Known about the structure:
Order of helices and strands: HH
Structural class: mainly alpha
Strand content: under 5%
Mean pLDDT: 97
Number of strands: 0
Radius of gyration: 14 Å
Distance between the termini: 20 Å
Amino acid sequence: MLIVKNAVKEAAGDKNVSSDFYEKLDEEVKELIGKAVDRAEANGRKTVQARDL
Length: 53
């Protein structure tokens, strides 16, 4: 898991966070990273940058 549950809970403020939310968020983050890596590679770079998002 890439996300930190405590950080997510803190960001959610006084709202409760269900366990399935953490799982889905982790999937979304992994997908976002994968797309950024693909973009960096397509541009001939080994470094993933903010602009790849």
